[in-house]
Predict the structure.
Amino acid sequence: MSTYKTKIIITYPYYDPELRPFLTDKFDLEDVLEFEDMAEMIYRNDFLSIFGTDEECVSFPKELFNQIRNDECMDQIIQLIKKKHSCKEDEDAFIYLFSYDYMFLTHKCICSFLENRKLSGDEIDFINLKKLIEKENNTMGA
C-alpha cells in the first residue's frame, strides 16, 4: 500500500505569482521570477512525488479521503469546493483539492492532519486554503 509522502516540499507555487501571496514560507523569490513558465511542470513533479508513480497511487486518494473525511476543518474545505465547482460528491471535491490551484496548501493541511489526527482551524495553511477558495468564489460572481 502507498503512503502519503509528508516530507515532500511542494515548490511550484513559488514560481506562480498568483499563488505566492498564500505561501507562509518566506524565501528570496527573485531567482524564480524568470522561471514562472515552469510552474505547471513543477506541479506535476510535486504531485507525483507525494503520491508516487506506482499503480497503487490510483486508489490512494480514496484511502486518504476515508481517513480525513470526518475532520471538521476538512469538511469545511470540501463544502466550499463543492459549492464552487458544483461537485455532487465529497470525494470528488476532495480530489479537486489536488488540482494546481490548491495542492500546495492541501498538502500542508493533510500533513498536519496525519501528524495530529486533526486539522486545526487556527492553522495558517487551513486559513489560507479557505481564503483562496473563498477569493475565487467571490471573483466568480463579480
Notes: The chain is about 50% helix and 0% strand. The chain has one domain: 12-140. Residues 124-140 form the longest helix (17 residues). The mean pLDDT is 84.
